[in-house]
Amino acid sequence: MTAPQATVGEVMADLAALEDPKVRAVNERHGDDHGVNLTKLRAVAKRVGTQPELARDLWATGDTPARLVALLISRPKQYSAAELDAMLREARVPKVHDWLVNYIVKKNPHVEELRVAWFDDADPVVASAGWALTTTRVAKSPEGLDIPGLLDLIEAHMKQAPDRLQWAMNETLANIGIHHPEYRARALEIGERLEVLKDYPTPPNCTSPFAPIWINEIVRRQTR
Predict the structure, then answer these.
(1) Which residues contact residue 105 at a Cβ distance below 8 angstroms, ignoring those fewer than 6 apart?
(2) Which residue from 168, 87, 163 is spatially nearest to 120, judged by alpha carbons?
(3) pTM of the model
(4) Could you list the pLDDT tens digit for every one of the 224 residues in the chain?
(5) Are 222 and 207 contacting, i.e. CB atoms less than 8 angstroms apart?
(6) Rounded to an integer, what distance in angstroms lies between the CA atom of residue 23 and that of residue 25?
(7) CA distances from 64 to 67, 131, 139, 148, 182 (A)
């Protein structure tokens, strides 16, 4: 059964009704400018169903919850490389950026073209997306990647990189250490020396993002 066609106004009204000051306070600490519980937001998107044209219209509002719904009701293959490039450069809110990369770009036929284009972009937020896509290649399809070259870049630039780019480079470092035993010792040494995210507050039962701890813990689990 096909879901009835929703309008931008209807979706925006549903989202406005979910606004919660307590949720906003938590989200704003992470740089996200909205107060909508994401489980409830996903329920709105599920009710709407896949609607590519509505997705474009919701994205065009510039409203963060509307953009999150837009990403959930999109077809990843509907976007051209140029559209995704423009969308990423507009996506300054961390959650919008993350969902765009993970839910749309990674499933789009232009993903490798965009990875290469974004990887060394002058905008560190854009570059962080290139590094996030590179992490996926490191873990799942490393053929053709210059892993020693990636380690060289991480060693030279991660310590001074802006927060979001630093986080993405650190994920690449950890995944090199986890998935490529021949480079594990070098990845561990770089992580120990640079000490990036060494003191990051980590909840109980979660793995620290500090690369040496992260690498050793995942390898330990894999070899149990």
Answers:
(1) 76, 84, 88, 111, 114, 129, 133
(2) 168
(3) 0.92
(4) 445 688 999 999 999 999 999 999 999 988 889 999 999 999 999 999 999 999 999 999 999 999 999 999 999 999 999 999 999 999 999 999 999 999 999 999 999 999 999 999 999 999 999 999 999 999 999 999 999 999 999 999 999 999 999 999 999 999 999 999 999 999 999 999 999 999 999 998 899 999 999 999 999 999 98
(5) no
(6) 5
(7) 5, 23, 30, 38, 42
